[in-house]
Amino acid sequence: MAGFRSAGSLVAMALSVALLAGCSKESSASKTESLESFTAEQIYKRGEFELENNKKPKDAVHYFGEVERLYPYSEWAKRALIMQAYSYHRAREYEDARGAAQRFIDTYPGDEDAAYAKYLLALSYYDQIDDVGRDQGLTFQSLQSLREVIEEYPDSEYARSAILKFDLAFDHLAAKEMEIGRYYLKRGHYTAAINRFRVVVEEYQTTTQTPEALLRLTEAYLALGMNDQAQTAGAILGHNFQSSPFYQDAYNQLHARGLEPVAAGNSWLTNVYRQVIQGKWL
């Protein structure tokens, strides 16, 4: 019996060596090799090897996919599916990464790796937010997916990272509004600019874009001769961001016209100011 076990071990070792020996071959050739004679673990480990040593992470997907195909109900198949999602993400194949991650969530909703699958899905949206000028649909999808990670898995190791990325994505949306608002402001379209800066103050007030939005509101209202609103915007800016260079700029512009940063009149900004004084804003 001991001799039989020894022989079996030698066969398994030989199979593993054969798998790893193929790592030096071209990717196209390795994908045509027959894997039926290898165990799920051996194929899975070949996928891991490809992922760690190959400059093309997508090549590892082939082996993880074969584990699923040949051993569909095994523990290795479950591991292989989450690794497919990870490999696709490493390869920047974000749509495929989302597909694999969603399949894992649908198939193994109660598994301990479901939180990671959900995080990978959110990350596949987040990592496509590369500049302010692009369509913001991906940003909204990123926010929704990150929120799901935070709400569904609040005690997971991924929740904290999701919160940070959520804040950054939220700031990204505010930055888009600021970009458009500045465009209108430079061209003298003051009402259109005010509408954009108002969105930042009312909907994205916790972002880093708020101080500049209040400065630009001060500028735009001064340009329109709406001094009450300009003073109120300056007052809010001074109350919350007095050390900001944006406040000093707003103060100088108001002072040059004999005005002070104080709440005046009755507008949407005075409502915001009252909330500030009552401690219900920011």
Note the overall shape: elongated
N-to-C series of helices and strands: HHHHHHHHHHHHHH
Return residue spans where pLDDT drops below 50 for at least 5 consecutive residues. 1-30
Major pleated sheet: none
Written description of the protein model:
- Part of the outer membrane protein assembly complex, which is involved in assembly and insertion of beta-barrel proteins into the outer membrane.
- Residues 39-233 form the Outer membrane lipoprotein BamD-like domain.
- It is found in: Cell outer membrane.
- Residues 1-21 form the signal peptide.
- The chain has helices at 2-21, 27-30, 40-53, 58-70, 75-90, 94-107, 114-126, 137-152, 159-186, 190-203, 210-223, 227-241, 245-256, 268-277.
- The protein has 282 residues and is mainly alpha-helical.
- It has a domain at 173-282: Alpha Horseshoe (Serine Threonine Protein Phosphatase 5, Tetratricopeptide repeat), CATH 1.25.40.
- It is elongated and about 85 Å long.
- Mean pLDDT is 86; it is low at 1-30.
